[in-house]
Amino acid sequence: MNEIKKYIRTTEKGMVFVPKNANVHHLKTISSCFELVWTNQKKSELRKDDRNFKTGDVLVLEEIKNNKYTGRRIFSFITHKLKNFQGLQDGYCILSIEKCVKVERSNNG
Prior knowledge:
- By secondary structure, this protein is mainly beta.
- The protein contains two helices and five strands, in the order αβαββββ.
- The chain starts with a helix and ends in a 6-residue tail after the last strand.
């Protein structure tokens, strides 16, 4: 976690800074799954592998409830990517994530 903390931090406006070589992936996340990450009960994401996810990239999980964004977001690093594994459907991956920053509401809506 200390390795991650040196790259991500928040300012009073909720800005997040990431390494130049990291991709940032904004992902809609249904409220029930989002809440489990928010409360540290879930530390992985099963996703379609259509975005070239890689270790070190940043996921911005954006909570969706009743088909609308709630304004809550979680910024996290991908710490491991599992793909091409027996039992895992082709084209999908499991991303291990380390949560870094939680944002309760955005001023932009």
